[in-house]
Amino acid sequence: MHATAAGIGALATAGLLGCLFAAHQIVPEVPFPAFVVTDLIIRLAPGAVATAGIERLGEWARPILRWIGALIVILAGGGLTALAAALRTRLAAWARAAGLAAGAFLLTAAVRTTVGPDLPMGPAPWAALLASYAAWASAVVWATERIGEGGSLADPSKATMPRRRFMVGFATAALGLAAGGFGLGRRWRPMPPAAPLADLPAASPSLTATPATADLAAAAATPASPASTSTAAAPASSTPVLAPPAATPGPAPSDFVPAARTRPNITPLLDFFVVNIGAEYPRIDLARWRLEVKGLVERPLALTFEELLALPRVDIYGTLECISNEVGGRLIGTTLFSAARMADVLRLARPQGDVAEVVMYAADRYSESMPFDKAMHEDTLLVYGMDGRILQPEHGYPLRVYNPNHYGMKGPKWLTRLELVAEPHTGYWVRLGWDKEAIVKTTSVIDGAGAIRVQDGVARIGGIAFAGWRGIQAVEVQIDGGEFRPAVLDRPLSHLTWVRWRYDWHNPPPGDHTIAVRAVDGNGEEQTPQPAPPHPDGASGWHKVHVTIG
Fold first, then answer.
1. 526: DSSP letter
2. Which residues contact 434 (CB under 8 A, 6 or more apart)?
3. pLDDT tens across 116-150, in order?
4. DSSP string spanning 345-356?
5. Helix (H) or strand (E) holding 106
6. Of the candidates 378, 426, 435, the residue with the CA atom closest to the CA atom of residue 402
7. What backbone torsions phi and psi does residue 215 show, to the nearest 5 degrees?
8. Element (H, E) at 43
9. Which domains does the chain have, with CATH numbers?
10. Which of 71, 209, 461, 533 has its CA 20 to 30 A from that of 280?
């Protein structure tokens, strides 16, 4: 009997998940139990397990964990229903339903508030979740009663409907709810404004509401870097808008001709890599969002998005690389960042005492830190725009940190708080065994190996090279283990970006060949040939490809 009850519970839970998924997509504050369980798995996983999962599964790790989370919830629903059926002689049907609903709600709430997004939630989402659990619990208790699993119909022969027919009908209804809910949820996903910066008027709300505004002129005193433009916003509007850059950042166009299939200098936003620690990215209500600045400061702050826009703006091209990027991998991209300097915000708060680090906290409960002097560097940015657009949710809307010369783990997305502290902070990935400094290693990549063709006796090979602040002095190509020969370099878009390169291989002989590339950074240091995996401080080694010249 209890096996049938477990089946009823599992089917009903699948239907519940479909409904809650749709509700979560329409109103993100409504918790989705499968994602709550997924977040719990992620937080409980030992560092070695998390690292192995990232290295072996890559971008599939999160979808797989989501399905595991959903399966756990479905199995738990079945188990709880079987337990309730086992108590049929001790508890009335209403008591079992109330116990199931309350137990599921309290468990979900406890886990969600511990490991879920660190965002304010009003009573309405919790009420919606409790009502959903109440409906689910009532359904499973009613179904087990109806089919003769307990209560007044403990004798299956007294059931009003043959068991098989009832189970088929119940399964059809539950799975229909699941399919309909997931289908609706996938279609309905409200997004924040994605207006192109160039299409928006040059206006920004005034700062008269905050006591910190008197310091804005002083905060703007930091000089801009040579490859960036800085624009002070004008007061006017109640809607957050971004003006186009005052001037086109970056160098003048060059006559460099890239090899076929070399990636574009600017990564399309749809192709820009996305890595985060949770089951999904936080979806933030801008009206309630604030950037808090606290700790060793004279004046704690809680800045609105509009107040950030009123700070002097920086538009600069930058390259961002994930520490999990393999040699030759795609977890690296270059875009135009539109931002305020972190130093400008910190000056408003008036740091005091012996500040060692600035700790950055994010809505997904991620945290990282950087030395105070790095936080005050003019290149360290609080980014609200990428590629000429307001940040998209997956890229950290409404605010992320760009921490140049370091891997992406040192620049949290969905930023909510900056805290100035006197002692070093151990960040999320550092606790799991990754390097605290996370300084980018020199890397060079061969793009489009499969597209190498001989034209007029020349095979053109190309790609990108990157070394953070150190810059790239030279790129060299080796054919079949022979001598390294220099490649031609494009001009970088800024001192924070990769550089594209091209090597013209004259009169290549037909057959199979191995091509390797290495870079020399701006300090004259050659890229190490020693292979190393991404964990713990980033991958290294020369990128090699095998090609066939026909």
1. B
2. 51, 323, 409, 535, 536, 537
3. 888 878 899 999 999 999 999 999 999 988 876 44
4. HHHHH-B-S---
5. helix 93-115
6. 378
7. -95, 0
8. helix 33-44
9. 2-187 (no CATH), 197-431 (3.90.420.10), 443-549 (2.60.40.650)
10. 533
Instruction: For residues 309-332, give the mean pLDDT.
Output: 95
Closest CA to 305 of 288, 280, 323: 288
pLDDT digits (tens, 9 = 90+) for 459-502: 999 999 999 999 999 999 999 999 999 999 999 999 999 999 99
Beta bridge partners of 446: 463
What pTM did the predictor assign? Answer: 0.84
Instruction: Return the half-sphere exposure (C-beta side, CA atoms, 13 A cut-off) of residue 132.
Output: 27
Who's near 71: CB < 8 A, 6+ residues apart? Answer: none
Dist. CA 308–CA 299, nearest whole Å? 16
Amino acid identity of 377? H
Bond preceding residue 492 cis, omega within 30 of 0: no
Question: Among candidates 387, 113, 74, which has minimal Cα distance to 249?
Answer: 387
CA 390, CA 243: separation in Å to the nearest integer?
Answer: 11
Dihedral in degrees, nearest 10, Cα atoms 203, 208, 213, 216: 30
Closest among 536, 384, 550, 518 to 52, alpha carbons compared: 536
